[in-house]
Predict the structure.
Amino acid sequence: MQFASLRLVEPLLRALSSEGYLTATPVQAKAIPPALEGRDVLASAQTGTGKTAAFALPILQRLLANRTAANGHRTPPRCLVLCPTRELATQIGDGFRAYGKHLPLRHTVIFGGVGQGPQVDALRRGVEIVIATPGRLLDLMEQRLIDLRGIEVLVLDEADRMLDMGFIRDIRKIVAQLPAKKQTMMFSATMPAEIRQLANALLRQPAVIQVAPVATTAEGIDESVYFVEKRNKPQLLAHLVNQLPMSRAIVFTRTKHGADKVVRHLHVRGIRAEAIHGNKSQNARQRALENFRSSRIPVLVATDIASRGIDIDGVSHVVNFDLTHEPETYIHRIGRTARAGASGAAVSFCDREEVANLKAIERLIRRTITVKHEQPEYVEARPAPVAPQQQERRPHAPAARRPAPTPHHHGQPSRRQPPAAQVRPSHHPSPNPLNGPRGRGKFRRRRIVAFS
């Protein structure tokens, strides 16, 4: 279906044409008409199928039709979009900027990890659209720095991810402060029972849209798996980056420490890469994304916090360096490639401990992933030699660092057992209490005088 047949206004069609978008994706074709009518929407679609445009376009058209002249005064927010991560919030903000560049509507993006000053300044100047993560939005609400009483449209994007990250309670707090009369749209890649319960509480007779089965990967992705020992994964990754080649690859790891470790291994082998995860500052994460988007680095290593927040065209490969124990996360990870009808490849590394994870993924997607056997000859890593000075100093700890002996108390056993040579034989008569460990020397004479 062409966008021109969806009753969108001319400025939106002109913006879409300049971005190279003429044909609507299935979720866009099904969600935009009821959204333009003002109905609530509950949509389930694969990641990478254009859900942002599915709600951004009708929101922009609605706000434009009902817009009143600001006359230089502060404009309160009329639309609130909630999403789970900073990267996704930035991505949604970019979408509103691209689609609404010919419209007199303003938006701002609110998330944590950075100073709130510029975000508060944007709110004070007046914006119609606020894209926010729940945590920072609640902070501003508690400080009374944002007024949400004029919200006309509420969007929950990646609702299942917000459930996984524990944001549902925050969402309920935010929704309680919004007007009862509003249009609500929920978009999610999966639809667990908790999300359906939330939808039943928030939506009124929604238009239910399900473009593809919940456990379906996007078309155009060539999936494969390598069975490899855990210690050999870095060598296999470097080999594939050079041999396939991987022109623009996202590598997913289980932990933040693991992401940094993979980057170091790639640097040693002469491959430029950067990591993006929760321990990185927002400026560092944005810089890494921009370097990856501009092809200054061919490999971006990420944790699952970014598995739904990266929308970059031309990703040739997604590598599951660590196989996730959550099968649904596998679908979101590999959805970073083959976006908007393009093709791509998803490569997974499976060690002995991850075989169960692989089987769970195959049960979810209802097919067997192709096994690749071509692997390089692995060179066993040797432990680094210990410096001679370290070898000499190891047996003898510095005297200042030796733990002080625990003093004996009258009638109480010592917590630290003294050396065997100093243990008093059991047949030895008990000493006079005044001659105990605290009764020697001058202290002993003082105590004797005191009791004489």
In short: Residues 158 and 188 are 5 Å apart (CA to CA). The radius of gyration is 31 Å. The first strand starts at residue 41 and ends at 44.
